[in-house]
Specification:
- By secondary structure, the chain is an alpha+beta fold.
- It has one domain.
- The chain is built from six helices and six strands, in the order ααααββααββββ.
- The two termini are about 30 Å apart.
Length: about 150
């Protein structure tokens, strides 16, 4: 559970490590191996909440799921989003129709998991991971750590 700032370069790492699962159970096992025993339900629940918020176009919920600051593309320009209010203001440009469809078409078992987080989308469009709230990571919150919508 490492907070990372990264962009599309992770695609190369993602494909090289082949960590896709065929079933929800396989994804649960993979996430428990990578993120800590018994954590898979939190990651699964986060994904379900993310998809519901995207389907509902619920900008407030999406904004609450992000680890700030985060860099995203707005009108094909790199933009630093500092807080929830900033993201809500540009939500429709960040979570446009194409980007939203990418998130909504995925199933939990379609996701890619590695030690830095869980990838949604075939080319790393969105990543989420646990952010430690205690030094020993015995407590953590799951947040979106990367939004790569530059297409």
């Amino acid at each position: 559970m490492i907070k990372s700032l990264f962009a599309g370069a992770l695609l190369t790492l993602a494909v090289a490590g082949s960590a896709y699962a065929a079933t929800d159970t396989e994804m649960d096992v993979r996430i428990d191996q990578l993120m800590g025993e018994g954590t898979h339900q939190q990651y699964h629940d986060f994904f379900d909440k993310l998809q519901k918020a995207v389907a509902d176009k619920d900008s407030k919920t999406i904004a609450s799921l992000v680890d700030y600051p985060i860099t995203v593309y707005v009108n094909k320009r790199k933009t630093n989003i500092k807080n929830t209010q900033n993201l809500i203001r540009v939500y429709d440009k960040v979570f446009d129709k194409k980007f939203s469809e990418i998130i909504l078409e995925k199933k939990y078992s379609d996701l890619f998991a590695r030690d830095i987080g869980v990838m949604v989308g075939d080319t790393g469009e969105l990543w989420y991971s646990g952010i430690c709230t205690k030094k020993d990571c015995s407590k953590f919150v799951i947040r979106i750590i990367a939004i790569n919508n530059n297409y």
